[in-house]
């Protein structure tokens, strides 16, 4: 989705804005632009396409010696990607960058047209620029202008604004869309996420809704609409610039898969006390968890797939019914929520619009909420009753990998804690699983990573495919949904995931000579059933790749054309190694196709609009 950066300080603003925009590239965009403020004038340079095109344009433009400016990467929603539709948008007194969607922009345009405003773009954002200008012309007060305009707009927004007649100052306001501000000794910064300003600082403030941040060099004031100063909490991330760089890997996605052992260890270890799960004061523990009659796990995409793993473990170990739902459906479906229910929101970014709306829906119904989130201080984390942070570090590649693994890890710990609280599991069994989670699992995943070149060789055999099926049973069927999503989003190979027993109820009609089928087998109890499904597809000509744990491969005769065997020293937790195999398979298939693995077409890292 769109990205925002703003800088005011002592250095030239343009290169700093470009550096910030480059750090935001991972979010997905199709145009970019900057506005520079100097000597009472605003100069905007915008361009369709990659940031490199904008840089070239900047080099060929006579720019003012500006030390203050705002920049933006746009992911088109209203109007095609073009120079005109790119941000910043200008009005007579100001330039503005915007993340989010103004739903009532047509009505605003109509009323402002009557007041003489001309609209040159097809965007919703231009209406916001002119509306703020409209109020600024009336009041000559930037804070009042921003608040009045914000009151009139429906939808979501994070705005960064510079006014031509207010030197060295950036104004920021937001609603339902993330925006952070920061000050160093010599600079003031705004950004849509921390990665854009990590080169300057790891300390920042998230602006509360309805508050205007007035950012100058080395100084930020937070004002309410009466202009009274209010306090905001400073937050710190332990992320470093190097963690947000490729560090020798070809792609962020590859680097992030290789970070999985460490991410799992870092997420699990601090949540163990005397060998069993303990979330401290952050989140409900055993006895409290045991009181819930039903759990709903609500999330989008990959996070929702991690939710399926949470369901499997919670139901198996704790015998509590779990309902997994796509957040965009949950919010509009009027879900049945009992007074002893718990809604768990899973989100890497903590800013996904649908997940945030689902959280608000659950809270409005008085249901207990727990967030499992990777980005500290993000909206979902702040608004939920309690939060467990996954400690995966920054995830830059659009396709989620390590965040999925750590979400699964937290859900396994929650399942164990619930099972203990309900007396469904002995202390000794709980200790065994927890030990395995903190020791065996990271080691097994590390062993899978060593197989990356072998997985690459197999993946290359499948890069020419156009359609592919993933099949498995039990947890493997859940894993297949994620394996399939990973492959299609980055390699553009169409694929579908099926519970192996379901194929013959319709889909097997698509299996003909040479159709590739990936069969995942980690569940020994269901292994023979999957082998039967393999025989069924093979007898119709399918070409089968079997991804299977070493121990099952030893014990069973599996009819397949290719095989990837991987170690899983604790069979019940083989899903973590399997996840890495599936991710590496997708990664190598996509890179062999020469695709931009980290930035797949049409996709955005953090989906902050509905
Ligand atoms: C796919 C992917 C997405 C996200 C989804 C939710 O690789 O990354 O499906 O999982 O957009 O994002 P978060 O977890 O940030 O809420």
Describe this structure in words.
With 610 residues, the chain is of the alpha/beta class. Helix 3 (105-114) crosses helix 4 (125-139). It is 37% helix and 23% strand. The strands form five sheets. An eight-stranded antiparallel beta sheet has the order 3-2-4-1-10-9-11-14, covered by helices on one side. Strand 20, helix 12 (379-383) and strand 21 (386-389) form a beta-alpha-beta unit. The chain contains 19 helices and 26 strands. The mean pLDDT is 94.
Features:
610 residues; alpha/beta; 8-stranded antiparallel β-sheet; 6-stranded antiparallel β-sheet; 19 helices; 26 strands; 23% strand; binds fructose -6-phosphate
In short:
With 610 residues, the protein is α/β, with parallel strands linked by helices.
Topology:
Elements: E1 3-8, H1 13-24, E2 31-38, E3 41-48, H2 51-59, E4 68-74, E5 89-90, E6 94-102, H3 105-114, H4 125-139, H5 142-152, E7 155-163, E8 170-175, E9 180-183, E10 188-191, E11 203-206, E12 212-216, E13 219-223, E14 234-236, H6 252-258, H7 260-268, E15 272-273, E16 276-277, H8 286-290, E17 294-299, H9 301-318, E18 322-326, H10 327-330, E19 341-347, H11 353-364, E20 368-373, H12 379-383, E21 386-389, H13 402-421, H14 427-450, H15 452-461, E22 467-472, H16 475-491, E23 494-499, E24 516-521, H17 527-538, E25 543-549, H18 550-555, E26 562-566, H19 574-592
Fructose -6-phosphate (F6R) is lined by residues 300-303, 347-349, 352, 355, 399-400, 489, 606-607.
């Amino acid at each position: 989705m769109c990205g925002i950066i703003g800088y005011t300080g002592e250095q030239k603003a343009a290169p700093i804005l470009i550096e910030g925009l480059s750090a935001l590239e991972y979010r997905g965009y199709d145009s970019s632009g900057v506005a520079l403020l100097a000597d009472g004038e605003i100069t905007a340079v915008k361009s369709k396409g990659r940031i490199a095109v904008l840089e070239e344009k900047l080099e060929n433009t006579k720019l003012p010696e500006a030390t203050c400016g705002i920049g933006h990467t746009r992911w088109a929603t209203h109007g095609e990607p073009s120079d005109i539709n790119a941000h910043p948008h200008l009005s007579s007194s100001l330039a503005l960058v915007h993340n989010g969607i103004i739903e009532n922009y047509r009505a605003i345009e109509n009323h402002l047209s009557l007041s003489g405003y001309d609209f040159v773009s097809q965007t919703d954002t231009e209406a916001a620029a002119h509306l703020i200008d409209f109020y600024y012309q009336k009041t000559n007060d930037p804070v009042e202008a921003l608040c009045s305009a914000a009151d009139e707009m429906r939808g979501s927004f994070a705005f960064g604004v510079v006014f031509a007649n207010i030197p060295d100052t950036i104004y920021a306001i937001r609603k339902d869309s993330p925006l952070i501000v920061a000050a160093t000794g010599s600079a003031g910064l705004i950004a849509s996420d921390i990665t854009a300003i990590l080169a300057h600082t790891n300390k920042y403030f998230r602006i509360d809704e309805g508050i205007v941040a007035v950012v100058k060099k080395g100084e930020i004031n937070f004002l309410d609409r009466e202009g009274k100063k209010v306090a905001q909490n400073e937050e710190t991330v332990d992320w470093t610039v190097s963690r947000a760089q490729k560090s020798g890997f070809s792609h962020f996605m590859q680097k992030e898969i290789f970070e999985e052992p460490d991410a799992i260890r870092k997420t699990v270890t601090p949540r163990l006390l005397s060998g069993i799960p303990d979330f401290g004061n952050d989140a409900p523990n055993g006895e409290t968890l045991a009181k819930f009659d039903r759990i709903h796990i609500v999330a989008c995409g990959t996070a929702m797939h991690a939710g399926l793993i949470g369901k499997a473990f919670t139901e198996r170990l704790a015998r509590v019914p779990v309902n997994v739902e796509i957040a965009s459906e949950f919010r509009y479906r009027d879900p049945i929520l009992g007074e002893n229910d718990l809604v768990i929101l899973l989100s890497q970014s903590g800013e996904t619009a649908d997940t945030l709306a689902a959280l608000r829906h659950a809270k409005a119904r008085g249901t207990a909420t727990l967030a499992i989130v990777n980005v500290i201080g993000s909206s979902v984390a702040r608004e939920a009753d309690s939060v467990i942070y996954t400690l995966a570090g920054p995830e830059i590649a659009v396709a989620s990998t390590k965040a999925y693994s750590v979400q699964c890890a937290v859900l396994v710990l929650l399942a164990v804690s619930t099972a203990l609280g309900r007396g469904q599991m002995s202390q000794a069994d709980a200790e065994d699983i927890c030990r395995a989670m903190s020791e065996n699992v990271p080691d097994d995943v590390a062993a899978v990573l060593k197989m990356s070149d072998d997985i690459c060789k197999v993946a290359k055999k499948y890069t020419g495919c156009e359609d592919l099926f993933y099949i498995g049973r039990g947890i493997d069927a859940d894993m297949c949904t994620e394996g399939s999503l990973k492959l299609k989003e980055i390699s553009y190979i169409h694929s579908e995931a099926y519970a192996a027993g379901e194929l013959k109820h319709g889909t097997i009609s698509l299996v003909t000579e040479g159709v590739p089928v990936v069969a995942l087998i980690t569940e020994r109890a269901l292994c023979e059933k999957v082998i039967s499904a393999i025989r069924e597809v093979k007898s119709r000509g399918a070409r089968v790749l079997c991804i299977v744990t070493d121990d099952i491969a030893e014990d069973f005769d599996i009819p397949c054309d290719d095989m990837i065997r991987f170690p899983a020293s604790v069979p019940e937790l083989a899903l973590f190694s399997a996840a890495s195999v599936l991710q590496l398979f997708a990664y190598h298939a996509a890179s062999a196709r020469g695709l931009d693995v980290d930035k797949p077409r049409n996709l955005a890292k953090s989906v902050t609009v509905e």
